[in-house]
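Aim 2 progress update. The chain analyzed this quarter is reproduced below.
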Amino acid sequence: MADAKDKDPKSAGSGSGKKIVIGAVAVLLLIAIGAGGYLLGHRAAPATAGTAEAAHAVVETAKSADPIYLALDPPFIVNFQDAAAMRFLQVGVQLMAHDQHALDAAKASEPAVRNALVMLFSSQDAKSLSSRDGKEKLRADALAELQKIIGERSKGAAIDAVYFTSFVMQ
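Predicted structure tokens:
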């Protein structure tokens, strides 16, 4: 009979050992959960306290970031009248901004952007486009046109510059 008691898995000694191990694991688990909650609570508090400041910092970072470019492909090809004959102008254009929202607005309103630039380019004359000053004035006029269009659609974001990446008159 003594052998039967020693082989019985439900003996008093083995049950109390399991209870101690389970109790110790439960206590350690509760300590870990409490410590994690404490650390997460203190880490999240400063972020929620300065939400307005954090949002302002994100906006400032976006504006001071490196420039972002958008190529308007295909290049613009327009004809314009010269005193002697019909002339052609091919212009490759890229837009530059410091805010992705401005370029997204330009892409979303690309038909209006392209129309404004086609109208502007086709209204030029060969004499003014032959000089550097004439090309710079055209670039400034293109920027003004695009800022009107993008300003209406982008809620404050703006195109910062227009660059001619190719410029061919024939």
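Residues 43-49, 54-59 have pLDDT under 50 and may be disordered. The beta strands are 68-81, 86-97, 161-169. These observations will guide the mutagenesis experiments scheduled for the next reporting period.
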